[in-house]
Amino acid sequence: MNPPPPRTVPSYHPLVATRVLAVGLLASLGANAYLLATRCGAEAEHPRPHSMRTTRHWSSSEQAAIGSARASAVLLPVSPEIKNLDRAALEKRVTETEEKVAKLLPLRERFALADRTPENEERIRPFLDKIFAAKKGDDPRYNVECHGDVCQLTTDVSPYEWQHELQTDPQGIGKFRGMSFGDGTFMELEEPGRAAGIQFLVKVFTAMQDSPRVAECKNANPAPGDLKLIVALDPGSRRLSVSATGSLEQQAGGVCIRRVLEDIVASTPLPPDATSLPSWPMPIVVP
């Protein structure tokens, strides 16, 4: 009997942190909604001139929502910063909060809420063609549809034939922020400029791990310690730099290892569409 296909949970949304952040964002949204409701009440108490007056009939559900917002907001501290916002700024704050909350939704729900983005479908097709061994001129054995930055993959091919490769193929590194399987297959795409930066960084780190010069630095400088190396990109000048921290930062062995990484970075072409690099530290331990 074949083992069940691998499942992944996006590493950037730990369950506890997600719940805490969601509660905080919803609390802020509730407070802002209360302020909007009270502003409407204030306008009712001090009506404008007859020529500017408008009539608004609240439905029972809207009245219940406003009452709930008022009751909830009484328990929430509202900062002076929010109290002093004008209506336009307050509505902007509510919109921003709603967008943050939306990012915490499951991928299936985000897919359903967003507009279709054919450009993302075209961006991901070459990689999916490789995973499903699609030949030029033939109809692929899959279908992909993207809404916003979330894509749904549908196929009648057994998941044992493609699910592992989808998650582990080297060409897919950096293309996705996360995936979900089970009730449909959904993939969250990484922003293109950052995806290109991630692929560059993986090449650099792989070359560093395979370099015999690192072992030479350790043998010539056996003092024990640790080193963390980070490659950074200045988006304006597109200049790459290497920084180091750790007990070996100023030691001869650490300086030697850092120079190895600097040489690798200098000899590895930066993709023209790369706009940022993740701050991933590369740990080195001696011995």
Helix-and-strand structural type? alpha+beta
One letter per element, helices H and strands E, the order comes to: HHHHHHEEHEEHHEEHE
How many domains? 3
First-last Cα distance = 44 Å
Shape: flat
Number of helices: 10
Radius of gyration: 26 Å
Tell me the total number of β-strands: 7
Helix share bin: 40-55%
Beta-strand content estimate: 5-15%
On the 0-100 scale, what is the average pLDDT? 81
- Spatial order of the strands in the main sheet? 1-2-4-3
The major β-sheet equals: 4 strands, antiparallel
Q: Residue ranges: pLDDT <50 for 5 or more in a row?
A: 6-23, 33-55
Question: Can you give a write-up of this model?
Answer:
With 287 residues, this protein is of the alpha+beta class. It folds into 3 domains: 15-104; 113-190; 193-286. The chain is built from 10 helices and 7 strands. The protein has helices spanning 15-45, 60-74, 80-83, 87-102, 107-113, 118-131, 163-168, 192-210, 212-220, 252-267; strands spanning 143-147, 150-154, 176-180, 185-189, 225-234, 239-245, 282-286. The strands form 2 sheets. It has a 4-stranded antiparallel sheet with strand order 1-2-4-3, sandwiched between helices. A hairpin with a 2-residue loop joins strand 1 (143-147) and strand 2. Helix 8 packs across helix 10 and helix 9 (212-220) packs antiparallel against helix 10. The radius of gyration is 26 Å and the shape is flat. Mean pLDDT is 81; it is low at 6-23 and 33-55.
